[in-house]
Amino acid sequence: MLFCLLVVTPFQYYVMPRLGYTRCNILEGHPNIYFSDWVKNPDWCVRGKSREWVNEQARLGGSPELNP
């Protein structure tokens, strides 16, 4: 667990934006301040929407960014 906090978390915040993802911590079911959802399209970061809704938006748009 300590490894994740000290190594993986900073690595995640460095790599994910470079891959085109945007941090989104306002989705429904967001467990705590230490966990972040990442979305490929910033328009999909909508307060109160679920992760399933985000996946549906990606499918409807024919988005190649959808990661199952």
TrEMBL record:
<protein>
    <submittedName>
        <fullName>Uncharacterized protein</fullName>
    </submittedName>
</protein>
